[in-house]
Amino acid sequence: MKSVILYDSIGGNTEKAAQHIFDTLRDAISIVDLVKFTPEVDIEIFDYDLVFLGSPVIDWLPTKRMMEFLKKKLQSYSDHGKIVPSSPIIPGKYGICFCTYAGPHIGKNEALPMTMWLSSFLEHLGYAVLDQWHIVGQFHKETHMNTQGRLGNILGRPNDADLTNVVNRTKGIIGALSASIEDEKS
How many CB atoms lie within 10 A of CB 178? Predict the structure, then answer.
C-alpha cells in the first residue's frame, strides 16, 4: 500500500497533525509521502492507495490555494478520462480528510463544511472516504480568540492529547485496512 499525506498549514497546527499521521504510517506502510502543499506541488493522486488530505479551516473551507489545486486536479482528471461518470468506488483506494480549526463562534460546526469539501473531492475520484477528523488548533494571530470562544481556552492546541488521538485514529485506520486486505486474500 502506498500512502500520501497532502496538507496545507498556515500557523503550524495542521502540520503537527500531518507529521503525527506520517510518523504513525511509516511504521506500518512501506511507502508514505508527506507533502506540504505549495503552489509548486504536483502529485499524481491516483498513484496512492491511501490519501490523507488536510488543511486549516479558513471561512469554513480549506485554504484557497489548496482548493484551487484540487479543482485543477479534478478538471485535469476529468479532461483525461480518469474520472468515471457516477463516481464508482475504486477498490483499494481510500481517503481520510482532516482539519485543524479554532471555531470561536460555533465550534466544530465551522469545520464540518471543510472536511465535507475535501471528502467530496476524493469521492469524485472514486476513493472511499473512511473518516473525517476535526482537530482543535489555536489561533496564532488573534490571541483573544483562543480564550473567548465556545471551545473555551484553546491556547497550545493541538496539544499532546489531541495529537495522541490523531495517532490512535491513524493506527485504527491501519488496523481496519490490514484486516480488510487479509479478508480479501482468504
Answer: 13
DSSP single-letter state for residue 49: S
Q: Say how far apart CA 162 and CA 133 lie, in whole Å.
A: 11
Non-local CB neighbours of 86 within 8 Å, separated by 6+ positions: none
- Grid cell of 73 as nine digits: 486536479
What does pLDDT average to over the chain? Answer: 92
Cis preceding linkage at 158, omega within 30: yes
Read off the pLDDT of residues 126-156 as tens digits, 9 standing for 90 and up: 999 999 999 999 988 777 888 888 888 999 9
Residue 130 φ/ψ, nearest 5 degrees: -85, -30
Q: What does the H/E/C string look like for 50-98?
A: EEEEEEECECCECCHHHHHHHHHHHHHHHHCCCCCCCCCCCCCCEEEEE
pLDDT at residue 33, rounded to an integer: 98
Whether the CB-CB separation of 75 and 129 falls below 8 Å is answered with: no
pLDDT band at residue 31, thresholds of 50, 70 and 90?
very high
Contact predicate 84/123, CB 8 Å = no
**pTM score of the predicted model:** 0.94
